[in-house]
Amino acid sequence: MDKKRNSSLSGNKYHPTHFSHPKAHFYTPLYTPLYTPLYTPLYTPPLYTPLYTLYTPYPLYRPPYRPPYRPPYRPNKMSNNLSSIKARFGIVGNSALLDAALETATRVSPTDLTVLITGESGVGKEVFSKIIHALSARKHNEFIAVNCGAIPEGTINSELFGHEKGAFTGAAGDRKGYFETVNGGTIFLDEIAEMPLDTQSYLLRVLESGEFIRVGSSKVQKTDVRVIAATNVDLQERVRKGKFREDLFYRLNTVPIKVPALHERRDDIPLLFRKFSHDFAEKYRIQAIRLEPGAEIILMQYRWPGNIRELKNIAEQLSVLSEERNISAEYLEQRMPQLFTRNLPMLLQGEGGHQGQKNGSDFQERELLYKILFDMKNDLNDLKGLVYDLVRSNDLNMPDVSALRTLQPNYPGSSYGMSNTSDGNTPAAPKPNSPIIIGGNKPGGHFSDQETVEDEAPLAMDEIEKDAIRRALKKYNGRRKEAAEELKISERTLYRKIKQYNL
Predict the structure, then answer these.
(1) Could you report the per-residue pLDDT of 9-54, keeping only the tens digit for each?
(2) CA-CA-CA-CA torsion sign (367, 369, 372, 373)
(3) 3 state SS for 165-194
(4) Where does the chain hold its CATH 1.10.10 domain(s)?
(5) To which H or E segment does residue 317 belong?
(6) Per-residue pLDDT tens digits for 491-503
(7) What pLDDT shows up at residue 191?
(8) Are strands 326-327 and 290-291 parallel, antiparallel or unpaired?
(9) For residues 126 and 187, is the Cβ–Cβ distance under 8 A?
(10) Residue 366 burial by Cβ neighbours in a 10 Å radius (0-12, 13-18, 19+)
(11) Which distant-in-sequence residues (6+ apart) come within 8 Å of 34 by Cβ?
(12) CB-hemisphere CA count at 13 Å for 144?
């Protein structure tokens, strides 16, 4: 309609060539050659104004130019129909967190903005990248997923940006990188936190200007690639530690998407288990297993550190090993006792009071301290057993344990072991349940009323560590590998402790 309004004059009822006769289309071949040469100059300057004034008995109306109609930008229509997206990509779940992540993915898909997908390992971050690509304008172009943690540090630049012949040993010819191969498409960079720092600078250049240089080349090339990154670690913590570029983090974090873990949407666990069991049964043509209510509760209470991957493995394992098709809680306890463990999370405070993970050395030192404390506990238990054996073999009377626990420490001003007389020097009468001590260090086997006992100063933790390392090295004749395994620490930590304590 706009094209006819802008380019044709026959739609104007005031134009002389416009006829209102019902059979006007029959006369079109007759009047068109006659009237067109006469009236065409009327609409071109400079004759437009005088001829319009002199020879036109009625006003001529020419509509103004209107650009072609372009609908305003609207989010993808599928964002309002999440059920169709779930059915298309095989997503199961009704969690509000999952729906929020899907809605964000569908809203950002029509644009070319960079997306950073975060979440634990095994939650399905790659599925979200495929959703963004399939709903974007690049859906007819290529999509490639690259695991940055699986590519060696020396070859990742060549894999991503390509190389020239002779750029390094083994480069027998030119090779295109992923950014050049998927030009016009989408590239998914998984485990972006494992990317080396020098490669991060090259990636930042591509995100800012779309330019890159092959390894061994001096020619700048252009590419039009949409980047979707994913990670299962805290990138801000790695930025604080200097292992990830801060400018690249903010460039990637244009639109963040947080994929919820499986323990954050426990109501979806029975649905996912049912899907995996039915898929396995359909593939191998067997009867699908079912969960009883007690078994469902057990699966919903488990934390699932492996997330959806672990749940799928459990479903397939039960489908193969279980003879009964109805899985009960008792059967799960027999076959899979790991489902009954409760791994409670522990809050770790990093540098600056921020929540984060401790470095490896602190963790190993803590494990060493735990090992020493457990050894001390075992020694104390052995000492208790020895004392009980001595008492039993010598026919001694043991005091009441409850009475021992109620004793007060003997510090100045306390009345422990003394009478309540005014002078405070008269010894208290012995209790009937007090132990009988045979012999003594004085004639008659009697002790003085009061004796000064010098307590040894408690050993510091460094001394305990040093003693434990010395005993382990002595036990294995200086073999550090076996000593490190005994102490439950790495050899590197053991070397550092030996150098620290001059052992």
Answers:
(1) 445 554 454 445 555 555 555 555 555 555 555 555 554 445 445 4
(2) negative
(3) CCCCCCCCCCECCHHHHCCCCEEEEECHHH
(4) 461-501
(5) helix 307-321
(6) 878 888 888 888 7
(7) 94
(8) parallel
(9) no
(10) exposed
(11) none
(12) 17
What are the start and end residues of each CATH 3.40.50.300 domain in the chain?
77-166+173-260
How far is residue 433's CA from residue 97's CA, in Å, rounded to a whole number? 65
Domain spanning 263-340: CATH 2.60.40.2550: no
- Helix, coil or strand: residue 212: strand
Whether residue 494 contacts residue 469, with contact meaning beta carbons closer than 8 Å, is answered with yes
For the domain made up of 77-166+173-260, the CATH class stated in words is alpha beta
SS3 per residue for 14-69: CCCCCCCCCCHHHHHHHHHHHHHHHHCHHHCCCCHHHHHHHHCCCCCCCCCCCCCC
Give 65-122 as a DSSP string.
P-PPP-PPP---GGGG-HHHHHHHHT-----HHHHHHHHHHHHHTTS---EEEE--TT
Fold category of 461-501 in CATH = Arc Repressor Mutant, subunit A (1.10.10)
The residues of the chain scoring below 50 in pLDDT are 1-10, 14-15, 17-19, 47-49, 51-52, 54-56, 58, 78-79, 349-358, 404, 407, 411-451, 453-455
Global pTM? Answer: 0.55
Task: Provide the 3-class DSSP secondary structure of residue 215.
Answer: strand
Mapping DSSP to helix (H, G, I), strand (E, B) and coil, where does residue 117 land? strand
List, in sequence order, every residue forming a beta bridge with 186; answer none if it has no partner: 143, 226
Token reading at 395: 């026919």
Q: What is the pLDDT of residues 439-475, one digit of tens each?
A: 444 444 444 444 454 445 555 677 888 888 888 888 8
> In the chain, which segments carry CATH 1.10.8.60?
263-340
At residue 424, what are phi and psi to the nearest 5 degrees? 75, 10
Q: Is 475 helix (H, G, I), strand (E, B) or coil?
A: helix
SS (H, E, C) 448-462: CCCCCCCCCCCCCHH
Largest Cα span, the chain: 151
187 bridge partner residues: 144, 227
How far is residue 384 from each of residues 374, 390, 465, measured CA to CA in Å? 15, 10, 24
Per-residue model confidence (pLDDT) at position 433 = 47
With contact defined as beta carbons under 8 Å apart, do 12 and 18 qualify? yes
What letter would DSSP give residue 241? T
- If 0-12 CB within 10 Å is exposed, 13-18 middle and 19+ buried, where does residue 235 land? buried
